[in-house]
Amino acid sequence: MNKNKKNKGFTLIELMIVIVIIGILASIGVPIYRGYVRRAMAAEGRALIGSIASAQKVYYAEKSTYLGGTIDGTSAESGTLGIDPRGNKYFTSATCTVGGGPSLTITTNGTGDAAGITVTGTMSPTTALNITETGI
Prior knowledge:
This protein is α+β, with helices and mostly antiparallel strands. Helix content is 43%, strand content 23%.
């Protein structure tokens, strides 16, 4: 009789090697994933800036000036422009600053999980909207 048995299964060393490999992949993948999530959150801020810029273009065409102030759904400026960002999850208000020339700067800051993300849009009657993001 042949008493040699063939062992089946994994050794402890093989399992430890697999766990180390999974750990290395996770340590690389999780920060990349978080970056994608923060970029997706910033997309809500870009959308808010874009809608405010469109409303400001209409306002400028009628009044030959931009409307400065806070857009938060409760302010007079929100009512004038017809924008209510309170339904947004991360970007629920914005500030419009009118400069010389005239130029307009629209800034919104993230809240909650998007804290630290700032989206800024600048434009004038002769230049297109330029959006920049920080904190991503």
